[in-house]
Amino acid sequence: MTDLLLRQGLVLDVSTGDYRETSIRCAGGRIVETGPNLTAPDDVQVLDLGGAVVLPGLIDGHVHVAAPTADLADIATWSPSYLAAHTARIMRSMLHRGFTTVRDVAGADHGLADAQAEGLIEGPRLAFGGRALSQTGGHGDGRQRGDDRSCCGGLSQVADGVDAVRTAARNELRKGAHHIKVLASGGVASPTDRIDSTQYSEDELRAVVAEAEAANRYVAAHAYTARAVNRALEAGVRSIEHGNLIDDRSIDLFREHDAFLVPTLVTYWALADEGVASGLSQSSRAKVDEVLEGGLRALESADRGGVRLVYGSDLLGGMHRHQNHEFRLRREVQQPLDIVRAATSTAADLLGMSGEIGTVDIGAHADLLVLNGDPIADIGVLADPAHITHIVQSGRLVR
């Protein structure tokens, strides 16, 4: 790793919202020194920032790097090497949009994480959950009604009953999963379920949570309606993905269980316009409107209620390019600093990496963005990657 000195930047402290003019020295992939007027040996690369804004590298808490199409069932038929090539391109683009770490919540595996860590592919640091767990006929079951073949490949796996979900969870943990994803309600991209259905019994949910906790990991749950969200939180799930149709009881449960909500507004915005062209079926497109309108209301309620919110995009296929637009959508109901925290320090908390990522503190990974604008004055600066002039990941200048 090359040592790097970023001289005289205006660094945002995401915990306070204050800026301080300082320099940052990176060595061994970490931030090793901050302060005014730092110097470095002649062989250290130096960037003179001239007072430009510096942020921690961004964190997207809900991605599918192995989803080059919105036709999730079709992915199971792809050659693994062909899928890996597409995935490498998706990951590289994410990094160049400023996301230095992402949490993949169905599809990515240890091979992709290792390849990124070893520098074989360029992309964000990858916290992966392996294949998501779905009940028969649930959000991860891609079969049409007339298809009686055994299920399934792609981003998910079917497991029914307490014993089966325990085995599935243990197997993903064996392969190094950072978290376990369960599909606890109906979804948009699945062909035979309803958005308002609850999926997995309470006993099944609790069994998965118990296995994750035994391995010092946690469970993330796809869930839309208050009924599904509340069941999952009561079962011990740590993060709710989407949550577009939550109620006041949901807000109380989030606080009671110290859980996280990961809204993904941009995916519905994109699916409404581009979903079918990106491989989404017409029947799935018809479900988008059911959750689209509730997303901003849920975000506003959660923000007002003190729920810990994390940035998520959940984009598929050609829609990945809209990843940063989530910043623009959230500003309708949130303050810029809170949105920045959702993509930095709060996301780091969810990933169990507080102090490691999402901060510009000594000892953290040297993941940094240099901007030509102030995102606290205008969060739109982060909504357009053209405002990112430099990207540093693990002390290496990416762009």
UniProtKB/TrEMBL annotation:
Record flagged with keyword Hydrolase: yes
UniProt cross-references to Pfam families, sorted A to Z: Amidohydro_1 (PF01979)
Biased composition (Basic and acidic residues): 140-150
Keywords: Hydrolase
Gene Ontology molecular functions: hydrolase activity, acting on carbon-nitrogen (but not peptide) bonds
SUPFAM superfamilies in the record: Composite domain of metallo-dependent hydrolases (SSF51338), Metallo-dependent hydrolases (SSF51556)
Region ranges (Disordered): 131-150
Domain spans labelled Amidohydrolase-related: 53-398
Protein name in UniProt: Imidazolonepropionase-like amidohydrolase
